[in-house]
Amino acid sequence: xxxxxxxxxxxxxxxxxxxxxxxxxxxxxxxxxxxxxxxxxxxxxxxxxxxxxxxxxxxxxxxxxxxxxxxxxxxxxxxxxxxxxxxxxxxxxxxxxxxxxxxxxxxxxxxxxxxxxxxxxxxxxxxxxxxxxxxxxxxxxxxxxxxxxxxxxxxxxxxxxxxxxxxxxxxxxxxxxxxxxxxxxxxxxxxxxxxxxxxxxxxxxxxxxxxxxxxxxxxxxxxxxxxxxxxxxxxxxxxxxxxxxxxxxxxxxxxxxxxxxxxxxxxxxxxxxxxxxxxxxxxxxxxxxxxxxxxxxxxxxxxxxxxxxxxxxxxxxxxxxxxxxxxxxxxxxxxxxxxxxxxxxxxxxxxxxxxxxxxxxxxxxxxxxxxxxxxxxxxxxxxxxxxxxxxxxxxxxxxxxxxxxxxxxxxxxxxxxxxxxxxxxxxxxxxxxxxxxxxxxxxxxxxxxxxxxxxxxxxxx
Length: 461
Prior knowledge:
Residues 24-434 form the Major facilitator superfamily (MFS) profile domain. By secondary structure, the protein is an all-alpha fold. The protein is built from 20 helices and no strands.
C-alpha cells in the first residue's frame, strides 16, 4: 500500500492525530476541489438551461434545489454509514455515486428533458454529500486539535481552486462566444429545438473529464493507508453514541442550533450570489456573450480564493468571531452598494462581495462543531451542519421568485440581508470567543504538559 512511512501518526483517544499525514491530507483535500468544480458548473448550467428550455428565474433555481436538496437528504444517513465504516470508505462510496450522476448526463442530453438533468444533478449531490460529510470532519481531525480550523481552511483552498476550474470548464467546454438566448430567439421553433439539443450536448464535455478523474482518485484511495481518526477508549475500542441520544444532545445545545441557522443563511447567500451573477451581467449589459459573461464568475471565484487566503492569515492572529463578523458585514455592504448602481459597476461590486465569502463555510463549520464538546457526537453533528447546505436549495429559489417579480438586480437584496444576519450571529458569538489564537495555543500546551504526555493508539486502514 502507498503511505508516507509506516502509519507515521499517533491517534489520540479523542480521534485527533499527533501530526498531519501529508499524502492522506492532500488526497482528502482534493475532495474539496471535486465538489467545488461540480457546484460552479451549476452556474453555467443555469444560464444554458434557461435559454434551451425557456425557463423563468425561479425554474432555473431548481438546479441548485436539486443539488443542495441531495445534500440535505443524505447528510444524516451518511453520518450513520460513517459510524459503521470509516471516513475513507465514505469518501470512496461518494466518489462512486458521484460518478453515476455524471454518467446520467449522457442519457439526459439525448432525451433533452430538464427533469432528467435535475435527476442527474440530484444523484451527483448524493455522492458529493457523502464526500463532503466525510471530508469536512476528516480534514478537521487529521492532525493536532489546536490546528483543526486552520486545517479545514487549508483544505477549503482546494475548494476555491475547484470552483475556478469548474467555471473555466464551463466557459470553454459548454459556452460559445455568443448569447445563446438571443440566438435562439431569432430561430423558428424547429430550428430552436434542434440547436438547443446540440448545445445541451456540449454540457457532456466537463463530465467526461470528471469520470476519468474519479476513476484515478478511487484507485489512489484504495491503495493508500489512512488513519481512522475515531474516538476510542484506553483499550482502543471506537466509541460512538446512538442517534437518538446524539440528536437529543444537539437539540439542547442552543449555540449549535443557532449556528446551523447561520450556516443555512450563509450558504443561501453564497449560492444565490453565484447562481445569478452571470444572469445579472447579461441583463445589465445587453449584447454581452455567454462566454464573456462567465468572466465575472472567474473573477468572483478568484476573489473568493484570495479572500480565503487573507482570512487564513487573519485567523492565525485574531479571534475567528471578529474576522467572520467583519467579513460578513462588509460583504453585505458591497452588495448593497451594487443595488444602488447600474450597469457593469453594479456587477463588479457584487463580484467584490465574493472576497468576503472566502472563509464563511469552513470557519463557520469548525466554529459550530466546536460547540459540541463530546466527540462521540461529532459525525452526526458534522452531518447536520452539512444539511445546512439546504440553504443553497431554498434561498436561491426565493431569490429567483423575487427576480421574476421585481427584476434580477433587485433580487440581490436577499443575499445582502442574509449576510448581514450571519454577521450579527458572529457579533453575538464574540462573548464565547475570549482567547486569541496565541492564547489558545499557550493554554493547550499547558494542558498537554499537565496531562503527562499520554500516548494514543496507531490505527490505520
